[in-house]
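INTERNAL TRANSFER SHEET
From: sequence group
To: structure group
Subject: DNA repair protein RecN

Please process the attached sequence and return the structure record in the designated field. Keep the field labels unchanged so the import script can parse them.
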Amino acid sequence: MLRTLTIKNYALIDNLQVTFNNGLTAITGETGAGKSILLGGLSLVLGKRADLNSIKNSEEKCIIEAGFAIENYQLQPFFIETDLDYEPHTIIRREILPSGKSRAFINDTPVTLDVLSSLGERLIDIHSQHQTLRLTDNSFQFQVIDGVAENTNFLNDYAEKLSHYLQTKKELKNLINFQQEADKEYDYNSFLLQELQSANLQVGMMEELEETYERLNNVEEIGGSVSHVLQILGEEQVGTLAGLSELKTIFYKLSNFGPSYKELHTRIQSALIELDDIHAEIQRMEENLEADPQLLEEVNAKLQQIYALQKKHNVLEIKDLLLVQDELAQSVSKTENLENEIKEKQLDVMRQEEALDALAQKIHKAREAAIPTLTAHLEAVLAELGMPDAQFKISVNMTGTYFSNGKDELHFLFSANKGSSFNELKKVASGGELSRIMLAIKSLLAQYMHLPTIMFDEIDTGVSGEVSNKMGDIMHQMSKTMQVFTITHLPQVAAKGDAQFKVFKEDSHGVTSSQMKLLTPQERIHEIAEMLGGKDISASAMAHAKELLLKKA
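Return from structure group:
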């Protein structure tokens, strides 16, 4: 509920501070006095985009602050979700700096415009001429029916499931597209993989093969060298081993003549043992050294296979070939498993469609059940508002398409007069008729949507007389369960208010500014009499004004 409103340095307003109560509040004033300015300021504090041109004094900042009593509107979850301090009396402040920058605060905590706008939607429903035109929009008509049907929980659940469903369908489409591309490469990748697997690649095998190849390819040269070495080492008279043995014998005899000779004897003995072991190793090498043309051919073929694979895959190491092999194996395996993945994803889509269909059916049935209530209410209220022959033909038909709010197509048809054919609202309803229909809808939605405050901006435009009196009655009836504001030019409507504010202009030192004041009972009589008869107020106008105020429902 809007309790206080402060506007500083906005349009024609220097400094305005007003306090509101519950019930029906009428706001009146001459055309151009500033009623739209007041509404513009309120819209800013509720999250509307700021315009630098709206600053009255361009050297000072514009401040708009509104206080709301929100303890009865279950808004704690919103404050928790947005990490804001909850206060039963919440203060919203909007500042527009001379630089053009805008700042917003909720209970002194800076917030984004999105957060401010989201809270604003929960606090005030501002009904303007633009919103009346929305009545012809199919999405708004759905909102009306769903409001009466109390479909909020169903629709929230449906929206969540629809989002998941669309994402799953996208994943399925991507899998199918990938399969189509993968199938084109599958045969080639399988061939490459088989080619690599047939090579039985292992890290270090190329070095081992190259060593074997060099040994087999040069067996004669190696054999000759080995024989020569054995001759050098092992010849009985002049071989190295024979000479070293002789040295050992000599220094063994000399070892008794001093430690230096003994040390040399020990070193010669160690060298002899090592050389003797080398001689034995070379002998074994000679024994195992033999030509093997078949093995040489096999080793060479294996090496050529590896070299060819390295060239084909543009790598230098066996480990890199093994990485390529792993990648190909994964690609081939993924292609082979795609069919199963696609089947699983298709089943998932079907399961989600079943859940969506079940929810859509619940939404559809709730809408069908709400239509008689909506139609009866609209026709009854419009009969009071001077449209006794107005009729609605509203129907919802389920389709095979998943829309954002279910699977229904809505037909919202209207006939204003007897014998007239039913047609879409935008084709058959006048502006005045649309205003009356919208008031009838708002009066019904007020029972279901539980808005704290609603503000009607000249919803009574285009009507007069008894119809305007009935419109005032309806708004006054709504104000028994919610706070209602009406900006009006009609005395019949203004008289229904529990309180009445007047917006007016005044000049001070050559500067015009807009003001707003709460009228006393006597001032209300004078204001309504002026609305009835003009500036020259007659005794009959005063009497009529008193009568209107006494007749307030």
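Handover comment: The mean pLDDT is 85. The chain is about 60% helix and 20% strand.
Transfer complete.
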